[in-house]
Structures are given as C-alpha cells and as structure tokens.
Amino acid sequence: MTDAAQALLHRIKTDGAVDGQIIKVDTFLNHMVDPTLMRVLAQEIAGRFADQQVDKILTAETSGIMLAQAVAEELNVPFIYAKKKKPLTMTGSYAAASYSFTKQETTTLYVSQEVLFPAERILFIDDFFAKGSTLKAIEEIVSQARAVLVGKAVIINKGVREDVHSILTMEDLR
Ligand code: G4P
Fold first, then answer.
1. Is the Cβ atom of 116 under 6 angstroms away from ligand 1?
2. What is the pLDDT of residues 94-136, one digit of tens each?
3. Could you tell me which of 68, 81, 73 has the C-alpha nearest to residue 33?
4. Confidence band (pLDDT; 50, 70, 90) for 6?
5. Is the CB–ligand 1 distance for residue 97 below 6 Å?
6. Which residues contact residue 7 at a Cβ distance below 8 angstroms, ignoring those fewer than 6 apart?
C-alpha cells in the first residue's frame, strides 16, 4: 500500500466512516477539506501520470475540484471543471448528460469550447468512482472535443473498472 493510501485509510478510520457502500469523508475530503492530505493524495496521482504528457486536467463540479487543483499544481498544468449549469456567457460548449444513482437525477455537464481543444492530452480526476456515469459523460465531452483521455484517477474507486486509477478501493476498506 502506498503512503498516500495509508494516510487516507488512517484518516477514514479516525475521522470518517464506512457504512455499507457509502464512505463518509466530509470532515476532511468533500465538505471540510484538509489541504495537506489533499496534497499527499495529489502527489501520488501526479507521480503515476507524470510520464503521460498531460496537457490539462478535467473534473466535474463540485467535489472533484479540490483534488483536480492539487494534481494540476503538481503537474504544473491547468485544470478545467465541467459545469452543471451552462452560464449565459458560455457560447460554444461541449455537453453530456450524467445520471447520478446517489442523487437519482440527471445532470448535464458543460465545458466551453474555449478551454478544451483537439489533440490535447487530458487526465480525468474525481473524488469517487461509483457507477461511472460522470466518467462516461466526461469521455463523451473529450470525444466531442477530439481531445485524448490519457488517464482516469480518483481517490476512492467503488466500482469495477480497473482502468480507473485510485488511491483506495472498496477492498482496501474492508
Ligand atoms: P458515478 O458518477 O461514478 O456514476 O457515481 P454516482 O452518480 O453514483 O455518484 C456520484 C456522486 O456521489 C458524486 O457527487 C460523489 O461525490 C458522490 N459519492 C459517491 N459515492 C460516495 C461515497 O461513498 N461517499 C460520499 N461522501 N460521496 C459519494 P456528485 O453528485 O457528482 O456531485 P458533487 O457532490 O461532487 O457536487
């Protein structure tokens, strides 16, 4: 287990909780945020994708943003967060719908055509990977832009897709 995985596991045990399939992390990851822990997690992910010539990081509002920024700082690249509401000022956009099983609602993700370009090498970042609907929408947006998705990384992978890099999986939490 990596140092980042051990630090996160320790934190979940002391300040969080695992309730069946739901992991409670809102006192250090996705409501109140511990930037020191976030940096440790980001360094692990940045190290894993350091040789992938990443041009930009792409995440979705809201809780992916903190990790996306931390990884972007490590890799020294910009990050984009897909918006869940299309601003009036966003003229041309890529868009894809995502159904959240947790929230039981469909959300459309929007990315301006002014920030994502053909052939750019994109790293997807999020806090959780659950059913994969966010990633599916992101894949659609990247494809609309004719950019290239070179990696996918999350803090906790609750799903079965092994191409999604994660610090911890459900297995580690048992
Ligand atoms: P999917 O994108 O992989 O299909 O996942 P799903 O819709 O089932 O759930 C994604 C949303 O639920 C995400 O928030 C994610 O942060 C949250 N989530 C999923 N599993 C857990 C968990 O075990 N613990 C916690 N705390 N949150 C979880 P979102 O709806 O995309 O929006 P936002 O909260 O980032 O704004």
1. no
2. 999 999 887 899 999 999 999 999 999 999 999 999 999 999 9
3. 68
4. very high
5. no
6. 37, 40, 41
pTM of the model: 0.96
Half-sphere exposure of 51 (CA within 13 A, CB side): 1
Using CA atoms, how far apart are residues 49 and 54, in angstroms rounded to an integer?
Answer: 8
> From the CA of 145, how far away is ligand 1's center (Å)?
25
Reference 150, options 140, 158, 142; nearest CA is 142
CATH of the domain at 118: 3.40.50.2020
Dist. CA 97–CA 75, nearest whole Å: 29
Question: How far is the C-alpha of 75 from the C-alpha of 91, rounded, in Å?
Answer: 29
Q: Provide the number of structural domains found in the chain.
A: 1
Instruction: Supply 43's token pair.
Output: 């360094």
Domain residues for the domain of 93 are 3-173
Q: Collapsing DSSP states into helix, strand and coil, what is residue 61? A: coil
Whether ligand 1 lies within 6 angstroms of the CB of 166 is answered as no
Residues 6+ positions from 139 with CB-CB distance below 8 Å: 149
